[in-house]
Structures are given as C-alpha cells and as structure tokens.
Amino acid sequence: MAGQSSRIKGVNSKLAHTGNKPDEFFGFVNPPVVHASTVLFPDAATMASRSQKYVYGTRGTPTTDALATAIDALEGSAGTIIVPSGLAAVTIPLLAFLSAGDHVLIVDSVYSPTRNFANTMLKRLGVEVEYYEPLIGAGIADLIKPNTKVVFTESPGSNTFEMQDIPAIADAAHKAGAVVMMDNTWATPVYFKPLDYGVDISIHAATKYPAGHSDVLLGTVSANEQHWPKLHETFITLGCCAAPDDVYQVLRGLRTMGIRLEHHQKSTLEIARWLETQPSVSRVLHPALESHPGHTLWKRDFSGSSGIFSIVLKGGGKAKAHAFLDALEVFGLGYSWGGYESLAVHVNIDDRTVANGPYEGPILRLQIGLEDVEDLKEDIAAALAAAEAVAE
Ligand SMILES: Cc1ncc(COP(=O)(O)O)c(C=O)c1O
User: Fold this and answer.
1) Could you tell me which residues carry N6-(pyridoxal phosphate)lysine (predicted)?
2) Range(s) of the domain holding residue 331
3) Between 70 and which of 18, 244, 264, 318 could a Cys-Cys bridge form, CB atoms 3.0 to 4.6 Å apart?
4) In a domain, 2, yes or no
5) Is residue 85 in contact with ligand 1, taking CB distance under 6 Å?
C-alpha cells in the first residue's frame, strides 16, 4: 500500500507519501478535513472508559493525525503536537518542562518573541532565565546549574544566522539531565533532523516552508520517546489545538516542500554569492557560504540551506536601511518568511545581551522567494544604490 511501503526512504518520497491512508478513506488520496468538537460513543461503557480512538476534537482528529504522522516520519520522532502558531510551538514545550525555581538557558540569537515569552511569562512563573552566546558549543557546561532543566537552541540564529554546535550542547545538557529543545524552522527536517543530533524536542513554525504560501499560521512540536508523554499531556492540559483547515493546508504544503526548498536554496545561494561581490555590502550572513564563521558546522550537520539570510551594509544606520527598503519593488516589506514571495526587513538586535555584534552597518534580512533570480538581483541592486546615495 502506498504510504506504508518500506521502499519509501528518501525525504521527497516521505513528503509525497506519508500522512495519508487512502485505504481508510474510500481510496481518496488525501485525508478528510474533519471539523469536530463532538465525537459520539456507541454506548455508556465505551463513553466511561473513553476506549475508542477519538474522544473529543481538542485531542486529535484524522486530519491532525495525518499531519502529525507525516511530521513524525520526517523528524524521526515518537509523537508530534500541532498547535495554532510557530510561537505556540515554542511556548508550549517550555511550559511543559519548566517549573518555578528552574533555570533555563536560551541562545541569545533566539527569535525575539521567544525571548519576550521567557522574559515576561517564564520569569513571572518563577523561572530563572539566562541567555548564552550562540557559539558557546561544549562551553555551555560552565553555565549549567543544578536547577537547569532546559537548554533552548535555534540554529542558525534568527536574523544574524550564527550556527550552534548542537551535538556538543546536547551532550553537555544531557550530562546534567536537562531537556534540549531546538527551533529548527530555518532548515526544516529536510535539511536538518534535530533528534538525530541529540535534541529531545524539535520545534517548527510550520507557517514558513511547510505552509509555504503566506496564508496559514501553524506550529509543530515533535518529541523523542522519553519526552513525548509530558509534551502530549501539556498539550491536552492547555487545549491549544489547531484548526482543521490550517492543518490540512500544511499537509498539502508538505507535498511540494522539497522542491520549493530546492528552488529557495539555489536562488538564495546565487543571490548571496553575488551580494558578497557588491562594494556596499560588508558581510553576507549565510551559513552555507564559505566566508561564514559557522560554515564548518553547517557543512558537518546540515544537508542543505533554505531561503533566508542577512546582509550587513558598509556603514550607516537607520536612514540607509530605510532607503534600501523603500527602493524595493519586487521584495515586499514583511516580517515573515518561507512563502513564495521575497521579503525584506531591517533587523533590530537591541534586545540581545551577548550576541550583539559589533556590526559595521545596518543588518537587512532577505527572504528569497520563488521569483526569477535576475528580477530579484535588479531589485536589490536598485536598493543598494538608494542606500549608497544616503549621506550618513
Ligand atoms: C525562527 C522562528 N520561530 C518561530 C516563529 C514563529 O512562527 P509564527 O509566526 O507561526 O508564530 C518565527 C516567525 O517568524 C520564526 O522566525
């Protein structure tokens, strides 16, 4: 039966064939979109014992099971929860594994709203929050305390794309009994499989490449065998389930994610290499470039790169950055990424405590979409010229 064959090994075969069971749904190739709160029971005894597969909409449906099964096949995980946004995919596991009096280590180049959650809600709940240098590697052992319960990683880091030595960090964390979490949105499980490198909990903003069309918000959290029961229990306790149409759209997006990623990767590398030759660009922050300080780690652990990176301009500040953005006509100005269209944003790293530079000029983040590379280069060239024309 397609979908369950042992011949499905490659990642693109998995993307095409996992998460659907046509034999269970009259042969239809895609699973049904189940809109449900109520589930009926055949009799009182079944109802009292809850001894049937589905019992209530918040706890899972054939639609959420389809996506979770597909993600498990990609991640190599024991279980996956599906939540309403990428940010919820960050906050729910942190709530699951941290309690008052615990200490959490979070990489300083983390996605800003993750930091905001830690600095507000986690601190209010009595958790001690500490940020660490992204390049720390095995040195994280020096920061681990008896009450360190979670080490949170994100590699490459948001906006500045520092690579982390995930196996070294996981090793040190595990020696101290801490849970290792990773926001793996940049690579997706196509280019990096966190659980194979010692991570316990893999987090994705499925809003980005899995959804791929800038129209859906969704998050997934996948756990290894040891940590799945607690993650699942917290998900049920919080009632933070996702809407069926969004879940279906992400499963649909997975079918083409492999080929979209290949296109993002190729166009992005071509543009990144070209940007390295532009006189007004000081640095290109993309780990797949040989010039990037994290390139060796990227090459060791990752099998590809996606479509978002940053450039640092040679000198100047906000006026130059705004001139660059305002001159763009193909790129949109927007905070998200992973969709089919190119986007740009002026990066702000003011909230960082350790990984804050120095940078020679403004940092501009570019998400390279599926447009033609020549059109994108022309747009960026016009933006660089506009930035150059600003006297600062
Ligand atoms: C690295 C990373 N993680 C998580 C998220 C959050 O995803 P969402 O927008 O679905 O909440 C984002 C969004 O930009 C992100 O860049």
Assistant:
1) 208
2) 259-388
3) 18
4) no
5) yes
